[in-house]
Amino acid sequence: MKKSFLSLVLLASSTVVFSAGDSHWGYEGKTGPDNWGNLSPEFATCKLGQQQAPIDIPTKSLGKATAAIKPAYKASAGEIINNGHTIQVALSDAGGANLSGVDYKFLQMHFHAPGEEKVDGKSYPFNAHLVHQSADGKLAVIGVFFKEGTENPVFKEAFAQMPSAEGKVAIKGKIDPSGLLPKSLAYYSYTGSLTTPPCSEGVTFYILKTPMEMSKAQLEQFRKLYPMNARPTFPLNGRKITETN
Ligand SMILES: [Zn+2]
Is 85 a catalytic residue? Predict the structure, then answer.
């Protein structure tokens, strides 16, 4: 009873295609990634999809992309949601970014430990996915890798407020996603899916080549809630990856 009530509350607060309230899947055992596609008919794409994310990016002989990422973010109020799978920072008015010539509105950012994408087999301890939506409903994700180093000011604010159990809080003050971007916005781009059920496809990824830093304490702060919330990588199945320098 209690559980379904919480699910309802979370579902009502989730945006677009993110089934934030579904707590019947996880990252281990019978409800882990290998079985997501069997848990519900709505999750079928998780096992049948041919353009799934994340991927391991091979950096040899990639196609050239020409469009630079043009971010236009600003500090915004919003909510920090612990949805049982990750921490999500949903911002109501954070601006957006121009990606491959299309304007996208920033929706939310959330985090994975370890980082979900790999590059030539190398993985990072953490990554942020910044989720955007265009006027016609298309999703684009900017992925930022993090390695251990100096403290990140955005995480300092966000992690201090994140709920330790499923639920959400209104952000005290404002959060600016710009603080998660490295100076160089050179990227690898590929077409993939949501990396959580229902694994819907048609999501364009822009994975930044330059990692950012966060402190060991910040990494541990997140891992205390989510020690492992990365989906394994998927085959390219003929997908072309492009890059900018
Ligand atoms: Zn993600």
Answer: yes
In a domain, 15, yes or no: no
Q: 197 CA distance to ligand 1 centroid (A)?
A: 11
Give 122 Cα–ligand 1 centroid separation in angstroms.
18
DSSP assignment letter at 181:
-
Ligand 1 mean position to 245 CA, how many Å? 24
Q: Which of 85, 110, 112, 129 is catalytic?
A: 85
* Å from CA of 4 to ligand 1 middle: 24
Give whole-number Cα distances, 39 to 12, 31, 109, 208, in Å: 22, 7, 26, 33
| CATH number, domain with residue 100 | 3.10.200.10
Q: Is residue 214 classed as helix, strand or coil in its secondary structure? A: strand
**pLDDT tens profile 82-114:** 999 999 999 999 999 999 999 999 999 999 999
Rounded CA separation 174/98 (Å):
22
* Domain boundaries, position 150: 48-243
pLDDT above 80 (res 128): yes
